[in-house]
Amino acid sequence: MRILRLGPLGISTHRRTFVVGLALTGVLFGLLIIALTAGKADISILDGLKASIGISVGSPGDFIVGQVRAPRAFTAILVGAMLGLSGAILQSLTRNPLASPDFIGISMGAGTGAVLTIWLIGASSLWVTAAGAVVGALTVSALILALSWRRGIVPLRLILAGIAMGFVANATTQYLLTRMDVHDAGNALGWLVGSVTGRTWTHVAVAGAVLAVLLPIVLWHARALRTLEMGDDTAKALGIHVGRSRAVLAVCSVLLAAGAVAVTGPIGFIALVAPALALRLTRNAGVTLIPSALMGAVLLLAADQVAQQMPDTLQLPVGIFTAAVGAPYLLWLVARASRGGQS
Fold first, then answer.
1. Of the candidates 302, 295, 116, 318, which has an alpha carbon nearest to the alpha carbon of residue 198?
2. 12 has which bridge partners?
3. Between vectors from CA 231 to CA 225 and to CA 234, what angle results, nearest 5°?
4. Which of 73, 80, 150, 258 gives the lowest tally of CB atoms within 10 Å of its CB?
5. DSSP letter at 189?
6. 250, 263 in Cβ contact below 8 A?
């Protein structure tokens, strides 16, 4: 058992979890190097790293890396981490591997809120979209909790209520698109597919600010989250304030998902897959927050790189690519469950 300290925060972790975290960090750094240097323009690793932190290396590296590749790569890393962390929290709270923000309608609610805001205000700036996404995610989450509450959250009711609210949110979004003018509808559709193309340092700043605020809060409640997996009675006996801890962690999960959707649009399956893969690698019995965040960042950055390297006629937004790759994983999960195995 190791104790990692970040300021006043202390995180206990097993040796295998620590090693997996280091390995994922190494893979993430390798993918970042590829994202900064691979492409039609020949840029060295050193110039790519310099340009990504604002050190001039001369044209064309300053623009290609500093203004195109680096913001796109860092956006993918931060959004992937937010989705992985959000999924890990939600799956731990509900003790259900299917309870990810995109699967139970939270991401779709964020999308509906953003599209509604664009329709009402007629603007598509990042801040307007972000505000609409947060309001939409919180509204849908409140409705899901209300529908699933019976002297506490009932996991099966939460999944069913989430799926139902997801359909409602999707139908509302489709209706709003029919009411928009062609220009706004085109912008909204381009955003709804989920993409990191064209993202700027402003998007990186927004995603970084959301993660910087919420990650310490989540880590502060990490012990409570692990204890809640043992059941409410055990958690109370160990001195955990069950209601307050669950509410704080649920709100953090929703805000992380909403922030991710606000920056890139809905990107499916990362929040579902990343915590499960992190658990398999670390072989922990309970939630693994940091490995889940790192796994989410690795998956989204890798998916974007693969999508970029495909032939021009086959290139897809990363949101569509992750959905296409994630669907077989979900089918495997269903098949495994039908055989009575544990996911």
1. 318
2. 3
3. 95
4. 150
5. H
6. no
- Tell me which residue has tokens 């307050």: 244
SS3 282: helix
Torsional sign, CA 272, 275, 280, 286:
negative
Please report the DSSP string for 46-101 in residue order. HHHHHHHTT----TTHHHIIIIIIHHHHHHHHHHHHHHHHHHHHHHHHHT-TT--T
**Cα 158 from Cα 183, distance rounded (Å):** 37
Tens of pLDDT along 142-176? 888 888 777 666 767 777 888 888 899 989 998 98
In 180-287, which ranges are continuous DSSP H helix? Answer: 182-192, 201-220, 222-228, 232-237, 242-264, 270-282
302 in helix, strand or coil? helix
Residue spans of the chain under pLDDT 70: 1-13, 57-59, 122-124, 151-153, 155, 313-314, 333-334, 337-343
pLDDT digits (tens, 9 = 90+) for 110-146: 889 888 888 887 665 777 878 888 888 889 888 888 8
* 8 Å CB contact between 291 and 103: no
Mark 303-336 as b/e (b = at least 16 C-beta within 10 Å). Answer: bbbebbeeeeeeebbbbebbbebbeeebeebeee
Q: What is the DSSP letter of 149?
A: B
Which residue type occupies 88? Answer: A
List phi, psi (to 5°) of 297. Answer: -65, -45
What does DSSP say about strands 2-6 and 9-13: parallel, antiparallel, or unpaired? antiparallel
Q: Residue 147 is encoded by which pair of tokens?
A: 């529908």
Q: Whole-angstrom distance between the N-terminal and C-terminal Cα of the chain?
A: 25
pTM metric for this prediction: 0.87
